[in-house]
Amino acid sequence: MDGFKGKVAVVTGAASGIGLALAMRFADEGMKVVLADIEEAPLAAAQASIAAKGGTAIAVRTNVMQEDDVIRLVDAAFGTWGNVHVLCNNAGVSGGLIADGIWSIPAEDWNWVLGVNFSGVLYGIRHFVPRMLAKAEQGHIVNTASVAGLVTPPSGPYTVSKHGVTALSEMLYKDLKARNAKVSASVLCPGWVDTKILESARNRPAGLTPAAAPAPSAQAQLRREAVRLSLKNGIAPAKIASLVVDAIKSDTFYIVPVQPDIEQALALRLQDIGQRRNPTIVPPL
User: Fold this and answer.
1) What pTM value is reported for the model?
2) Catalytic positions, please?
3) Domains by residue range for the chain, with CATH
4) Is the pLDDT of residue 124 over 70?
5) Could you tell me the pLDDT band of residue 74, with boundaries at 50, 70 and 90?
């Protein structure tokens, strides 16, 4: 994609973490930004931050689990500025980390995490892409998965949702290239990033909260604390945003910034598959 100035970017999950970093970077590149998030106050703060830097943005409260909300977001973006050139399906939540065995994860966890992480991306593709293609201008879609979409850490619905996003993104990329579209796609699969994703339950719908969640085992609690520490020491979101901008400019599909131990785990899984051997059991990432 050639040049960002004056073009339009849409970012879901834009009020914090990677989404906020993406929105700020796009604004710095001279883009008009549509900020979407479920949290109203942080969303307004993000819009104010862009305005304070001289940027241009609108905020649209959006629950990406709800297809009607995504349709409303599409209408707001196209209705305000006539086109969308960059779409970042980025909103995501965590869940299932403290389960003692994948069989013990409550149905509510599966429905919530898959609803946000997978269906939110699917709805974005379903409703933005046809209108982007109809404009016949250069564009790019970036779907936020995770390295958990390339390896299989024990995080249940999160891992499953991110594998789904990776596969969906690959199919999207192939569909777009098969028709020589001016719109392309990337998948973002980072390792540990310094975000507050472990606190995502603050936005969890009451109807998707387990009535009686099993008490976490000591091992599961240690696992959660290790994840919290790894996130705190993770890659800065601004660095991720820079890599995304570079990938859009160069039409790079796989964006995989990871720590060395995760790089090794990824190589090992690919070797297992290539050699048709049983999955190697390694310590959790």
Assistant:
1) 0.95
2) 158
3) 8-259 (3.40.50.720)
4) yes
5) very high
